[in-house]
Amino acid sequence: MRTVLGRPDFRLLFGALLASMAAESILLLALAIWVKDLTGSDGLAGATIFAIIAPMVLAPLVGWAVDRYPRRPFFVAANLATAALLTPLFTVSRAGDVWIIYVVAGLYGLSYLTLSAALAGLIRQLVPVELLADANGVLQTVRQGLRLVGPLAGAALYAAVGGWLLTGLAMTGFVTAAAVVALLRAPEATPADGGSRWTAELGAGLRHLAGEPALRRALLGYGLGSLVMGFTESLIFAYVDQGLRRDAAFVGVLVTVQGIGGLVGGLFSAALVRRAGEVGALATGVTLFGPAAVALAYPSIWLGFAALLLAGLSLPLITVGLNTLIQRRTPPGLLGRVVSAAEALVSGPQAISIGAGALLVGVLDYRVLFVLVGVVTTAAGIFLWRGRRLSAPAPSVPRIPLQRRPAAAGAEPEPQVAHPTR
């Protein structure tokens, strides 16, 4: 990680993303709390999260739009647009204004999808292929750290200063990200005209995922695991209530423990990608989720802490493995569509899984469901592990001095390291 952070261009991007991810982390939970505060309804508050997820159905269109423009200016414009779309929140003052929060949440979900697709292309443009895993690992470590404090900070800020000031702080984060990325002086490749009908261009991302063996296996395996991993969103409340006999607020403690595991996973994810390859890292993450889920079938605080640490550890391995695989196995001009399609293929099963878990936990014993999650995710991990040779371990990081001294007169010039094709 030190190597990739030693690159001035990536360090600048990292600073921008730190601002935007902080804004994102404080905003998500605060929107749901705002709806709850205005209406008193848990169901209406939960619908805020659905509004954010719903735009995933537009993923092919979003990816097509992202691939039609240069990465850096598009990313700057998307951050400014995200800040602008939050402005209607300043008009919210009573229960009848809740629809405004829903509209903003939906637009924010669309913005999140757009920024993710643009970011993948921007990282691929700035970072050599041998440092992609390190770059993704750094960002995932920060994201996991912000998940530890961001939602709680957002909730505390909302309680202290209200939704209007919180909105202003979030807008500041996105504007700051846009301003910092605008300082980048990376070469911009002109997006190629696909020469196909726009309807064919929309489906190009899905066709690439289906036609590339490593990506196809990664999405099949992870998709299988995602069909049950979302159960845990509801099962964890039953585990705390029925198993540990504690108040629902104790879920916050378990989420914090999971976040600590996520930090550790983020720090070691790049090393695992270099040793086992992207599919191997993804397989490890999905497999580790299995014993973590099975352990939660037995109510014990200390066993629960160990299980949540393991579950938290698994998540960055999954994300870094999949993101790096997509970036390495996708032509730059197609990256926006492939990232958007992959996001939709992963988020769809997760959304179904969350809904199914909420229904099943009222019918079946939560312990049986945790065992089911463990068995299915372990099977998915084994399926992925058997295909790990489809993606060779990432190239080792070359030992390159960050700054070169000027060559003496008459001396041979130092060899330049060739960057991979953008």
TrEMBL record:
Protein name: MFS transporter
TM region positions: 12-35, 47-66, 99-123, 167-184, 219-239, 251-272, 279-298, 304-326, 338-360, 366-385
Subcellular location: Cell membrane
GO molecular-function terms, A-Z: transmembrane transporter activity
UniProt keyword list: Cell membrane, Membrane, Transmembrane, Transmembrane helix
Domain Major facilitator superfamily (MFS) profile: 8-392
GO CC annotation: plasma membrane
InterPro entries reported in the protein's UniProt record: MFS, MFS_dom, MFS_trans_sf
Disordered as annotated region, ranges: 399-422
Low complexity composition-biased segments: 406-415
Membrane topology listed for this record: Multi-pass membrane protein
